[in-house]
Amino acid sequence: MRTRKIVTDSIKDQIYELLKEEIxxxxxxxxxxxxxxxxxxxxxxxxxxxxxxxxxxxxxGLVVNIxxxxxxxxxxxxxxISDMLEMRQLLEIYSLQKVNENMTETKRKKLLSLxxxxxxxxxxxxxxxxxxxxxTTLIAMAGNSYIISTYGNIYTMLENxxxxxxxxxxxxxxxxxxxxxxxxxxxxxxxxxxACRLTKLHxxxxxxxxxxxxEQKQKAK
Length: 221
Description:
By secondary structure, the protein is mostly helical. Helices cover 72% and strands 5% of the residues. It has nine helices and three strands; from the N terminus they run αβααββαααααα. A three-stranded antiparallel beta sheet has the order 1-3-2. α1 (11-24) crosses α3 (47-60).
């Protein structure tokens, strides 16, 4: 007897999953409005399941409803971003320590290759792409599946926010690049204490840049 895959997702659930993926992959950015009719036309459905899907996203905390204005992808507060950065710091330091403890020549060559690829970045978008590849690889090398998943979620949320807010600081990625490079250099040299110290400084600097960018955006309104 042949087996068949049974699809039980409703239209609402399918729209929800598609919109959620678009938000988490930055195709829909922080602060962007979700227009029901536009989404319905694009997905060739009625507005009703789109409306229901958006409410599910509101429940997830990814979208907010603003009275008389509509639904918008959530723009996190500075406090929320600080919390995410603090968690990212903890996960990165843990992973740096674990990789240092279990460093192999294969891992070293992989990290060095990704580090060199990152330093060859010619623009902001290319830098963020290569930086993500490097750090998700390092996190994976730590070998903890829960940390891999948690870091991925945090990085994605920050990435979405960064895509919209960092337009105000177009050259800040160069500063970011230098800091991320010296962290990896310290790890490859076996100086784990320095790598962890530099990671803490990097997160502090990232928080400062984000605060200034948010203040600049607020003044521009």
